[in-house]
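Data availability (excerpt). The following record was deposited with the supplementary files.
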Amino acid sequence: MEHGGQCMYRIIKVLNNNGILVYDDHTGREMILLGNGVGFGKRPAQQIGSLPGAKVYTLVNRQKQHSVLQVVNGIRPEFIEAAGRIIDEAEKMFQNVSRDILLPMADHIALAAKRAAEGRQIPNPFTPDIRVLFEKEYAAALKGREIIRELAGCEISDDEVGFITLHIHAGLSDEQVSEALETTRIIDEGITMIEKAFGQEFEKDSLAYTRLMSHLYYMIARTRKGESTKADFNEFIFANYPYTGQVAEEICAHMSRQLKKEVAREEIGFLAIHIQRVVDPDAV
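Predicted structure:
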C-alpha cells in the first residue's frame, strides 16, 4: 500500500537515508515513512508533502510511559528498516498485514541481534510447532533472516525466526505475540499428552499431524471467544473409540484449566476424531 493524497508531514527525526519519523498534521499522529532515499537530504522540523513510493507505518506505542520518539531512539535504524522489509515480504503472501507491528518487531530484531553478537540465545521450545501452525508466516520470517543479515550483518537463530513468525502472525490477526505463544505452549502440552497416552511419537510432517495441530489451534480460538463447533461426535467416539474419547476429554479439561474458560462439551468428540486419525490413519 503506497500513501497517496495531499498529506503534510513535519519531520521529527531522520532515521537514515531510507527512513524518517514524522508528525502527520492531518491526523495528529506520529508515523514512520520507509522507502529508498526518503530520508536523504531531509532535516528535523522540515515540512514535507507525501513522498511517492514511501511506505507509511502508523505507530502503536504500547509502552505508554515512553514517547514514540524515545522508543524509536532506542532502536537502531537498520532494525526498523529490516522490520519494514519483513512486513513487505509478508504482504506478498498475505496482502493485508497490519503495519502496527513495525516497532515491536524492530525492537525484537534489535534484541535478537544483541543476543547473537553476545553468543546468547533465548530458546524457543515451540519453534517446530510454530513452523507447522504458521507455515506461511514462518516462510516470511525465514526471508526476514536474510534481510537482517543483509542490513545488520548478524545471523539470527531458528528460534528467533520462530519469534518473528509470531510478530508476523500478530499483524494478520487480533492475537498478540504473547497470546500466540501461550496458544502454542498449550497445543504442545496437548500433543505431548496424546503421544504419552498412546505410546507413540507422531510423524511431524504428516497431514494428519498438521490437521491435529490446526484443529487444536482453532479449538483454543473458539474457546477464547466463547464459541463452539456445531459438530457433535461424542456419542460416536465413546461407542467406537472410548479410550481416544477419554484422552480427548482429559486434554479439553487441561485446556479449560490453562485458558480459565470452559471448553465446550462437543469439542471432545471433534478432537477425538483428529487424534484417532493420527494414532491410526485407517481407522476414521
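Summary of structural features: Residues 177-198 form the longest helix (22 residues).
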